[in-house]
Amino acid sequence: MSIYLDYNATTPVRPAVLDAMRPYLNSHFGNASSSHSRGREAKRALEEAREVIASALGAREKEGVVFTSGGTEGDNLAIAGAAWAARDRGRHIITSVVEHRAVLGACRALEAQGFEVTYLPVDAGGLIDPEIVKQSLRPDTTMISFMHANNETGVVFPIAEIGQLARGRGIVFHADAVQAFGRLPVDVDALGINLLTLSGHKIYGPKGIGAVYVRPGTKIVPQIHGGEQEHSVRAGTENVAAAVGMACAAQIALESMPTENERLRVLRDRLETGILGNIVGTRRNGDRDQRLSNTSNISFQGVRGDSLMVALDLEGIEVSAGAACASGSPESSHVLRAMGRRPEIDGGGIRFSLGAGTTEAEIEHILDLLPPLVERVRAAEIQGIGVRV
Ligand SMILES: Cc1ncc(COP(=O)(O)O)c(C=O)c1O
């Protein structure tokens, strides 16, 4: 039995998405910047895709959607782009310690270029307190950047409340919605968002495509220079097939969101209560309620996350080690450490992230298999022989 429970890492392309993309990979292969028929056909498809993404975000202006090569480029474009655009007003940025590395990396690069970044802590449940955000505001703060949902724990930040702090102060609010989009309603007006990052491959679309929503009036400096594609914000020939695929995937995700969320919540809770109730030394990482319905991150005391991940892989079960290493080495999860978890005491974290293909039978199979497997890995670790299962 092969079981994939790593949907926060990536998702398979849905058949309908592949069907929608196919023509733009062969017969309709035109360059969206070409003026002839094939070019115009590609342009039309690209603009339709833009429209779909904009309306999925509740955005009135489709021009606000800028296609990128994915979430990482989107985070870099939004953060560096807005920071440089506002550099004459101030150079202070606020974010959190649990952001994705795409955001942390973009912030570190800005620090090296003379910007100042405040990395706010989270509580034991992985949540941020909007009051701390408020206290961190400075006259020279030009941007606040927070993830909507955390990729490791699924914890959902109070984005609307944080958005209100930015609004009216002339501060740009960027949200990394790579994990949230397609799983939670994301409305850029209701959330007070200026800039929002999306990625195609987390929503059953293709890899290598993403988008940044840019609110009209929010200034960003391009990070890739060249042609005038994407309203001169992001140069480079557009990946029309992937944009069409992402739009199709977004439509399906939004339509199925309410029922799929409920289905996954039931399966996730069954998995989580089964593990916490039947395996000693286990602990949930992340607030129980303020969480994506598909994600469960659990620490297993006395077990390295990567050891258990490999042991599960040998049984045909693919998960992610939230904390790559239980020895407290620099590789251990920055998210779990920020929540006060000590990998050497609490054990490594395993992220189970459920998705469209997850079934009840799979969850029951894991619940049968896991207790003896964890015992074997624990015994092996005590003897210092690593993964011998
Ligand atoms: C929260 C978050 N932001 C950004 C990214 C980067 O997206 P991409 O893989 O499309 O570059 C990811 C991917 O894991 C993510 O989970």
Automatic annotation (TrEMBL):
SUPFAM superfamilies: PLP-dependent transferases (SSF53383). Its cofactor is pyridoxal 5'-phosphate. Pfam families: Aminotran_5 (PF00266). It catalyses: (sulfur carrier)-H + L-cysteine = (sulfur carrier)-SH + L-alanine. InterPro entries: Aminotrans_V_dom, Cysteine_dSase, PyrdxlP-dep_Trfase, PyrdxlP-dep_Trfase_major, PyrdxlP-dep_Trfase_small. GO terms for molecular function: cysteine desulfurase activity; iron-sulfur cluster binding; metal ion binding. Transmembrane segments: none annotated. Its EC number is 2.8.1.7. Residues 3-365 form the Aminotransferase class V domain. Gene3D superfamilies: 1.10.260.50, Aspartate Aminotransferase, domain 1, Type I PLP-dependent aspartate aminotransferase-like (Major domain). It is an enzyme of class 2 (transferase). This is Cysteine desulfurase. It comes from Candidatus Methylomirabilis lanthanidiphila.
